[in-house]
């Protein structure tokens, strides 16, 4: 599973394993249970090194 790095919002700084099918869209939508949120790919594409490996940066969409 791809890793994403959250930038902004309640998940700021968190790294998550996300099923590749969830990244087929331009936005990533969380519908709970802890938070609701919409993230989009940072443009231009960026990655961050994390303890779990490189993660693609996704930014909160407000």
Give the number of helices.
0
Computed structural class = mainly beta
Assembly state: single chain
Order of helices and strands: EEEEEE
**What's the overall average pLDDT, rounded?**
89
Low-confidence stretches: none
The coarse overall form would be globular
First-to-last CA distance: 26 Å
Describe the structure.
This protein is 0% helix and 50% strand. The protein is built from no helices and six strands. Strands 1, 2, 3, 4, 5 and 6 form a six-stranded mixed beta sheet that branches. With 62 residues, the protein is mostly beta strands.
Summarize the structure.
It contains no helices and six strands. The chain is mainly beta. Strands 1, 2, 3, 4, 5 and 6 form a six-stranded mixed sheet that branches.
Blueprint (SSEs and pairs):
Layout: E1 3-7, E2 15-17, E3 27-31, E4 36-41, E5 47-50, E6 53-60
Parallel strand pairs: 1-6
Antiparallel strand pairs: 1-2, 3-4, 4-6, 5-6
Defining key terms:
0% helix, globular, 6-stranded mixed beta sheet, mainly beta, 62 residues
